[in-house]
Structures are given as C-alpha cells and as structure tokens.
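TICKET: design request
STATUS: open
ATTACHED STRUCTURE:
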C-alpha cells in the first residue's frame, strides 16, 4: 500500500514524499486506517517496524482537519530523551509542509529549554513529545493547556513500566480530558501492559506485528553496487563459489525472465519459476531443482514462502526485497534443517534506503562485502534512513519549537 492510498492531507503527502517513504510497512498499513477512523489502538511492535510513522502520520492528518487553538492537542509519552529526540526528528520531516506545530519536552537542566517548553505548553502547541518526569515538572506548575487534548500516545509502554514510570503516566493522564483517542505501543505484551491498557484504552483495536527473526546460522552479506554491475557480479559469484544449490530472487517476473535469459546465454545450468508458468511446469522445475539436476533457480517471491527445499546453500537477492518480512522469508529458504546457508543481497543506489529499513527491522547491520575489483568503482553505502543501532541522519540535539510554521 502506498502512502497516497490512505487519503491523507496533501501537505502531509508532500512531506512524506520528501522523507523518501513510498510504501507503508505492515504496521502502518494496519494502524493508520484505524487511527483515522478514531479507534483506540493497542499494538505490539518493536522499533524498526515503522511504528513512529504509524501513529504520527494519522495524528498529523487529523490535526490538520481539526485543532483546538491555544491548546496541546496531542501528547506522545516516551521513556527516554533519545527516543523523544528521534521522534521529534521524524515529526519534523512529516510535518515539514504542513502547519502542525510541535515541541519535544524532555529532561536536561538548562533553563532556556525549560522556558521554551513552558511557553509552548502554556500557549498551546499541536503536538508534544515528552518524557514522563519532565512533563510532570511542568504539570506541577499548572500552566499546561491540556483541556483540548485529542490524542494520547504511549510509546514503548513496556519500557516505561520497566523504568518505573507507571505512577507518573497515570498522573499525567489524570490531567487530560476523558474524551480522547488513546494509542498504546509496546514491544512486548506482559500482563502489566494489559492491565495498563485496561485502565487507559476504550475498546481498542489490537494489532500484532510479530517479526520473525532469521536463524543465526544463516550468514548474511550484501554487495553495494550500481544496478548495471549486478549481472557481472552475479556471474562472478556463480563462477567463483562452490555452492551446490543456488536460489536467486527477483521481485518482478520480467526481471526473472530477463536474468534467466542472460545466464542461459552465459551457459549456466539454470531454470526459472514465476506465476506465468502453469502448475505442472512449476512442479517440474521444482523437481529438477530439488533433485540437483539444475543447480541454479531464478524465482519471484512466489517461492519465498513456505516451500521446503532442504539443501539450498545460497540465496541471492538480485534486488532488495520489498520489506523486512519478504527478506526474512527469502533468506529463510537456505540453512533449513541441519544445514548451513548463506544469503547475499545486491543493493543498488536506489535500493539503499529500503535495505537500511530492513536492517533497522532486523536490528542488525548486514556485512557489506568487498566487490571484486574487476567490476570497477562502486557506490558508497549511504542510506537516508537510520541504520540499525545508529541514531537518525541529521542528529540535532537542539530543542526546536515549531510555532505553526505554515507552508515553508
Ligand atoms: P521506527 O520503527 O518508527 O523506529 O522506524 C524504523 C525505521 O524505518 C526508521 O529509520 C524509519 O525512518 C524507517 N521507516 C519507517 N517507515 C518507513 C516506510 N514506510 N518506508 C521507508 N522507511 C520507513
């Protein structure tokens, strides 16, 4: 699903496009329509799934439709400063071409920031991202305008409880109007989160994004190349490596057909499988591959789920899969049963951001292997997205307050 399909405000769509997002992640696909409909949500989703955009985008859209002027309209409570900063940075991108104002309110001892926060909270600001302790400090002085609040988000709720913020959260909530939309995100769902949810949420829609993890025994590597170098690299690997059964994935059947033609011309023993083959043909191809008569098979994602072939020792992603789940399914075709396996992904210039998103989802940086010198110069790996375990691109610790910036 593309972001243009959610019916979001034009200025928001423009901002999303500028951040480079095109296709929604699974959690975004499930959660965004529900928030737009006005439902409370309880979602189990880890960092890396795209959960931040899943709640920020529909909230921004709804705020563009209706805002209570001079009030705080949405409050996002998070466990740590780092997360507050990260969400504020995301928000800066998503609201760039919109008129939504925001501020991050988090600990730290400088009086100037406190004064800026106080000004925003007392004059009203559309969206506030806060850590519990700092918010309580402001609430104690009674100037925060919370009567018009429409949205409450608890992000990483399990972590907040582990850090002992239960009472702070409840104190903050006691100052909010009862009629509001509540969204709770948590990586895990222990009983104490269920209890918290019962106290706060009204008839929530439950969303579960369970991400499976690829088995550790699969060795994952990637090559960062130009699109035009992929074919030569593939031929190089097939010639120089000692793999017995190789499964190559392409996202589109046209690419499968074209690649098969090229490799056949170069005399590699190869077959193809995609949805243009009828069932009998597919079974025949699979049988020849399984029996070892054809050692190399090129496939679309129809082969990535569920098909059990034990001895594939190398999976090559000729292009970067659509999302993390597809990646996990594709590479899971190797190292089945007791055997080991390797998964190699080719990343072109245009695919770097998508691959970084997958790395974030896996919370793992995949080793970038050296491309053989004879292939010539290669691009650097410079994705725009945050990389696994690393903070976001334009990391800026300065507190920003965006007072209704309007179209910039
Ligand atoms: P999060 O789970 O919100 O921390 O997001 C994880 C990473 O995925 C961040 O680097 C986001 O910028 C990125 N991201 C989230 N949604 C998308 C999307 N639909 N397309 C591309 N990247 C995304």
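STATUS: resolved
RESOLUTION: sequence designed for all positions
ATTACHED SEQUENCE:
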């Amino acid at each position: 699903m593309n972001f243009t399909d959610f019916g979001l405000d034009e200025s928001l769509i423009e901002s999303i496009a500028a951040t480079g997002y095109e296709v929604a992640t699974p959690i975004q696909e499930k959660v965004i329509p529900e928030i737009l409909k006005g439902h409370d949500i309880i979602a189990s989703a880890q960092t890396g799934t795209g959960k931040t955009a899943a709640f920020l985008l529909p909230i921004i859209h709804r705020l563009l439709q209706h805002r209570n002027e001079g009030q705080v309209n949405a409050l996002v409570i998070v466990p740590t400063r780092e997360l507050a900063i990260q969400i504020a940075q995301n928000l800066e991108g998503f609201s760039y071409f919109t008129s939504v104002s925001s501020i991050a309110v988090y600990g730290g001892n400088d009086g100037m920031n406190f004064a800026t926060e106080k000004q925003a909270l007392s004059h009203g600001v559309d969206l506030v991202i806060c850590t519990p302790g700092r918010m309580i400090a402001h609430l104690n002085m009674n100037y925060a305008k919370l009567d018009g609040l429409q949205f409450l988000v608890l992000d990483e709720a399990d972590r907040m409880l582990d850090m002992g913020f239960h009472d702070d959260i409840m104190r903050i909530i006691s100052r909010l109007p009862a009629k509001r939309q509540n969204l709770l995100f948590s990586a895990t769902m222990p009983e104490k989160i269920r209890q918290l949810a019962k106290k706060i949420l009204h008839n929530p829609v439950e969303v579960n994004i369970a991400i499976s993890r690829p088995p550790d025994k699969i060795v994952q590597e990637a090559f960062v190349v130009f699109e035009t170098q992929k074919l030569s690299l593939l031929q190089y690997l097939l010639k120089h490596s000692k793999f017995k059964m190789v499964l190559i994935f392409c996202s589109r059947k046209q690419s499968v057909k074209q690649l098969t033609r090229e490799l056949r011309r170069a005399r590699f023993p190869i077959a193809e499988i995609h949805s243009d083959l009828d069932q009998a043909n597919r079974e025949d191809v699979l049988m020849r591959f399984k029996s070892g008569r054809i050692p190399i098979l090129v496939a679309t994602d129809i082969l990535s789920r569920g098909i059990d072939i034990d001895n594939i020792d190398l999976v090559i992603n000729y292009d970067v899969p659509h999302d993390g789940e597809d990646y996990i399914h594709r590479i899971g075709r190797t190292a089945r049963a007791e055997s080991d396996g390797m998964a190699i992904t080719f990343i072109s210039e245009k695919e770097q951001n998508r691959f970084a998103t997958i790395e974030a989802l896996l919370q793992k940086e995949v080793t970038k292997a050296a491309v053989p010198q004879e292939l010539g110069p290669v691009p650097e790996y410079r994705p725009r997205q945050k990389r696994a375990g690393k903070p976001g691109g334009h990391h800026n610790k300065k507190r920003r307050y965006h007072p209704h910036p309007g179209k910039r």
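CLOSING REMARK: The chain has two domains: 3-211, 218-386. The chain is about 35% helix and 15% strand.
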